[in-house]
Amino acid sequence: MRISQLTLKINHDFFGGLLLICISGGAWYHAQSYALGTLNRMGPGYLPVALSLILGGLGMMLLIISQFKPAERVTLRVVPMIIILGSLCIFGIMLRSAGLFPAAFTSVILATFADTRITWLGRVTLALVVSLFTGVVFVVGLGMSVPLWWS
Amino acid sequence: METLEFIGLGLQTALSPSILWYCFVGVFLGTLIGVLPGIGPLAAISLLLPVTFYMSASEAIVMLAGVYYGAQYGGSTAAILLRLPGTASSAVACLDGHPMAMQGRAGVALFITTIASFFGAMFGLTILILFSPHIAQLGLMFGSAEYFMLMLLGLVAACTFSNAPLRGGAMVVLGLLISMIGTDTNSGVIRYTFGMRELAGGLTLVAMAMGLFGLADIIRNVNLIDNSKMAKGFTLRSMLPNPSDWRLSLPAMGRGSLIGSFFGALPGAGTSISAYMAYAGEKRLARKPERFGNGAIEGVSAPEAANNASAQTAFVPTLTLGIPGDVTMALMLGALIMHGITPGPQLITTQTELFWGLVVSFMIGNIMLLFLNIPMIGIWVNILRIPYRWLYPAILIFIGVGVFSVNNSVFEIYTVVAIGALAYILAALRFEPAPLLLGFILGPLMEEYFRRALLLSRGNLSTFVDRPISFGILMTIVALLALLALQTWRRRSPKTGVSSDAP
Which residue, B126, B240, B398, B489, is most buried by CB atoms nearer than 10 A? Predict the structure, then answer.
């Protein structure tokens, strides 16, 4: 099997806490431009500031806890993630310009590369079946307004 | 007597051809995705949400609910035959169901799970019918302060019951924060859109649910699920349990149903916890606990009855108070709101036909499931053989088309990609996505109730303490948190085992 994932020996509490603190910091910083208001009449910034402070606090707690725990193996499946998310992006890019059928066909072909056991015949058959099926169900059946083909 | 009249009214609604059809579609799809490992009911309900735009509110809920409780039936099939839980709540069925299959008793295990599921579901439904009107009456006395407190209780309980409370809590808060994206309803100020005007309306529920459960699950499962090693085949005749199986199973089903009904109606608990509680209970009651894990039939029937009972009673707080107990219920709540129906204590009186139609359709759906799962079990066993590599590309395209159809906008596809990436990274760092979605859905409702309560009390926080019901709920929250702290502290000290007396 190909090497398609990243296995890191990291402390997931540490990195989890760090991620939470980063998110809360960003949220807190952005909320500075919204009026705070008072408890009686809360402005648009009141809850975002409060929530980002709580999130930051929880992140800190995780960070502290992480100091008492050993590192563990965390697997990040980088290649499958890129393939799956990438093929969905391609679907989005092609949907309006090329039409539903070509978009679905292309992204199914791309998505199948995340699996190592599929053959080319299987790939093409699957892509044909899925794109025909979605076309029939969503455009013909449910009347979704998106072109089937480019014109 | 009155209840019977209402059930008659419900029958009229539930027996209309379109409701019957969507009920069947729901339970059929539910069994299907329950059987297939790698797709859970949450992903399936999120995938179906956009399709329900084309239906009436009752048709939509009947179908989505069918998927939910149908998946509880199907989930155990994969668990027993492959040791792969089709749904999270059927993970318990692996423990004794798979050993049974290895002993050549797969048929018996499948038969008993279906009977136990039906038994549990009917028990839960009876509770739903008997208690809902009373709880709704109680709910009429609640004001904004009580609603806010109840939702807070739901969120706190969801964290307490999850396996890592601190992380669960962080996910709830992150979900609340993400729900702030978009236009603030009170001031009209646009928050956290980073200059993208498509975000002014906030992230859609469909994109959130599909990204968190659909996409992240695909990335996690692709190329890993192996369903080629199936337990031995079986005939229909080999499915019939012997008398001693019945004698052991029936009381276990009763106990499982009781446990499941209780935990299902609690905010924050849900089907998985019910199944685990029922299993632990059986093991403690058993005269020979060592049989468990080696194919004890009570270890299959009790948790199955429990998760189905809780799948039904979970509707009690959702339909009567508008407070979802778990994420799936939160999605149901979202679907109701999308159809312009506000769940709450008024629902039973103002939407009488909808409520009783739903309840009766649940009954019909469970009867359908009995037939779908016993005579037609062979079909599901064959479906179980479909490799995941044929399924995930189709799911991926459905996600794409589904989110696109919400607003007819390609932008939604990119948001679901972004949410999927975040969800996967969070999952890799062992954060659970369910509390995040719960926070996201409850966020706007809680903000609204919180503000209204404070507006009524002129900014005085003591309103939450002065009102007796609100104070009672607050005390429950405090008790839960205290229990949590105690449990964490006890787990630290090496002497005692892992949370033996937790609720």
Answer: B398
Residue B247 within a domain: yes
| Range list of H helices, B377-467 | 377-383, 388-407, 411-428, 433-456, 463-466
User: Domain range for residue B348?
Assistant: 2-492
DSSP codes, B287-331? S-GGGTTS--THHHHHHHHHHHHHHHHTHHHHHHHS--SSHHHHH
* Total domains in the fold of chain B: 1
Nearest Cα residue to B78 out of B187, B229, B265, B181: B229
Tell me how far CA of residue B100 lies from CA of B91, B109, B374, in angstroms: 15, 7, 18
Tell which of B152, B162, B174 to mutate to test the A interface (max A CBs under 10 Å): B174
Q: Tell me B212's DSSP state.
A: I
Indicate yes or no: CB of B184 within 8 angstroms of CB of A44. yes
Please, which residues 4-63 of chain A have a Cβ atom closer than 8 Å to chain B?
4, 12, 15-16, 19-20, 23-24, 27, 30-31, 34-35, 38-44, 47-48, 51-52, 54-55, 58-59, 61-62
The closest of B103, B117, B106 to B238, measured between CA atoms, is B106
User: What ranges make up the beta strands (E) of A34-94?
Assistant: 72-76
Cβ(B312)–Cβ(B128) below 8 Å: yes
Angle, CA of A116, A121 and A124, to the nearest 5°? 95
Work out the pLDDT band at A54, boundaries 50, 70, 90: very high
Q: What is the ipTM of this complex?
A: 0.93
Tokens 């009686």 correspond to A40
pLDDT tens-digit readout, B229-256: 665 556 666 778 888 888 888 999 999 9
Q: Is A25 exposed, middle or buried (0-12, 13-18, 19+ CB in 10 A)?
A: middle
Asked if B421's CB is within 8 angstroms of A85's CB, the reply is yes
Q: What is the largest CA-CA distance in chain B?
A: 70
d(CA B32, CA B379) in angstroms, rounded, equals 10
Domain ranges for chain A, please list them. Answer: 6-76, 78-141
**Which structure tokens are listed for B250?**
């029936």
Which pLDDT belongs to residue B497?
Answer: 38
- CA B134, distance to chain mean position in Å, is 23
> Taking the CB of residue B459, how many other CB atoms lie within 10 A of it?
13
> Which residue type sits at B92?
V
Spell out, as residue ranges, where chain B has pLDDT lower than 50. Answer: 494-503
B501 occurs within a structural domain: no
- Residues 141..170 of B with a Cβ closer than 8 Å to A: which? 166-167, 169-170
